[in-house]
Design a protein that fits this description.
It is an enzyme of class 2 (transferase). It is a single chain. By secondary structure, this protein is of the alpha/beta class. It folds into two domains: 4-28 and 296-403, Aspartate Aminotransferase, domain 1, CATH 3.90.1150.10; 39-292, 3-Layer(aba) Sandwich (Aspartate Aminotransferase, domain 2). The protein has helices at residues 4-9, 36-48, 59-79, 93-104, 126-135, 152-158, 181-190, 210-213, 238-243, 278-294, 296-315, 342-351, 364-370, 386-403; strands at 17-18, 21-22, 24-25, 87-90, 113-117, 138-142, 163-169, 194-198, 217-221, 232-236, 254-257, 262-264, 320-323, 332-337, 354-355, 357-359, 375-379. It has a seven-stranded mixed sheet with strand order 4-10-9-8-7-5-6, sandwiched between helices. The protein has a four-stranded antiparallel sheet with strand order 13-14-17-16, covered by helices on one side. The longest helix is centred in the first third of the chain and has 21 residues, at 59-79. The structure holds pyridoxal-5'-phosphate. Pyridoxal-5'-phosphate binds at residues 92-94, 121, 123-124, 169, 173, 198, 200-201, 221.
């Protein structure tokens, strides 16, 4: 059992006011809040050992390098990767996806096929469209049903000997659907295709085991797991990372450089050109420590309670329609009330100190599917409470009254 009141003390931002009201932060699917333990790690870095890594012989550089590489090992252990050099630091999920998409440019040819799901974030659609333009490959889409679940029988039908890659998010940021990635990975592998899973939305709620999943690539962002912005990771199986060409050229990613020829560094440095977000990487490790200390089973159980409670309360309000009612979902609720524009409700909620997301959530194809401009999205983390949900429901009723 989590002690939520104690946990909330770790998050300074949860104690501020917004528009004169105590902040209620329900926009966790966009970014999570940062505990003091992680903030301290960043402050400590800049206060005590800020230096560039992997180059200097001096002590500060050594300390920074050690801390950065230890964090990589923490990330490796967390995701149960076989080798630490299978963990590539990135600027976040979007960067990781682009790195893989770019690498596949040299591996694909006309007639090859890529499959994505209808539940994708824009960051998981656009890079593949660009890849298809560059290579002449074709993009296929796994359709979804009214509940916001992928239609797996249709997926089976899309797979064939031309399929080279399958891309799917583990959990949809717009609807909260947990996708059956085990099934997708197994089927894709049988067809000879590689699989990249976007874990941006799953990593805050569960602990993926990349070896058990047998996934080829897995990406996430630290800022959705209580870490800082601008850092994330790409896991890739060693054999795949060796096959992919480097993404960006620069310092740190080379073995030898001359004007005639440059040879690339080994993994993971081949993909880590330039000075990285050093404090961010170290803080990413600290964020995983923080979450693991709470325990992912306890987190999932509590967040599910919040989801069930909030769903019940919302359904009692006349005119509320919830989008995304998959059997397997996390603590994300997308909804509208009658035909009130989500933006208008979001604005009034903000006046009452409540942060929710409104709009298309970078997933316009999903909104097109439901024929709506957008939704209001409330997304919960382990530091949210039922009391906050009660306040939110009261505020929402007030907003609806004002706008009807
Ligand atoms: C947030 C998110 C992204 C993008 O993450 P960035 O940190 O902005 O790169 C991609 N996919 C999903 C499912 C997300 O929730």
């Amino acid at each position: 059992m989590l002690n939520i009141q104690e946990i909330r003390k770790d998050f300074p931002i949860l104690h501020r006011k917004v528009n004169g009201k105590a902040l209620i932060y329900f926009d966790n699917a966009a970014t999570s809040q940062t505990p003091q333990q992680v903030i301290d790690v960043i402050v400590d870095y800049y206060t005590n050992y800020n230096a560039n890594i992997h180059r200097g012989v001096h002590s500060l550089s050594q300390e920074a390098t050690d801390a950065y590489e230890q964090a990589r090992i923490k990330i490796q252990k967390h995701f149960n990767a076989k080798h630490s050099h299978e963990i590539i630091y990135t600027a976040g999920t979007t960067h990781g996806i682009n790195l893989v998409a770019n690498g596949f440019s040299s591996l694909l040819k006309k007639g090859d096929e890529i499959i994505v799901s209808a539940l994708e974030h824009h960051s998981n659609i656009v890079p593949w469209q660009m890849l298809c333009e560059r290579t002449g490959a074709t993009l296929k889409v796994i359709p979804m049903n009214e509940k916001g679940e992928l239609i797996l029988s249709e997926f089976d039908g899309l797979l064939n000997e031309h399929t080279k890659l399958v891309f799917v998010n583990h959990i949809s940021n717009a609807l909260g659907t947990i996708n059956p990635i085990e099934y997708i990975i197994e089927k894709a592998h049988k067809a000879g295709a590689a699989v990249l899973v976007d874990g941006a939305q799953s990593c805050p709620h569960l602990k993926p085991d990349v070896q058990a999943l047998d996934v080829d690539f897995y990406v996430c962002s630290a800022h959705k797991i209580c870490g800082p912005t601008g850092v994330g990771m790409l896991y890739g199986k060693e054999e795949w990372l060796k096959k992919l060409p480097p993404y960006q050229g620069g310092g740190e990613m080379i073995a030898e450089v001359s004007f005639e020829k440059t040879t690339y560094a080994g993994l993971p440095h081949k993909f880590e050109a330039g000075t990285p977000n050093i404090s961010g990487g170290i803080a990413f490790g600290a964020a995983l420590d923080y979450m693991n200390n709470l325990g992912f089973d306890a987190i999932a159980e509590y967040e599910n309670e919040l989801l069930v409670y909030a769903t019940e309360q919302l359904e009692k309000i006349e005119g509320v329609k919830i989008y995304g009612t998959a059997k397997e979902k996390t603590s994300v609720i997308s909804f509208n009330v009658n035909d009130i524009h989500p933006y208008d409700i979001g604005t009034i909620l903000d006046k009452m100190g409540i942060a929710v997301r409104t709009g298309h959530h970078c997933a316009q194809p999903i909104m097109d599917f439901y024929k709506i401009p957008g939704t209001i999205r409330a997304s919960f983390m382990f530091y949210n409470t039922k009391d906050e949900i009660d306040t939110f429901i009261t505020a929402l009723k007030k907003a609806v009254m004002m706008l009807s």
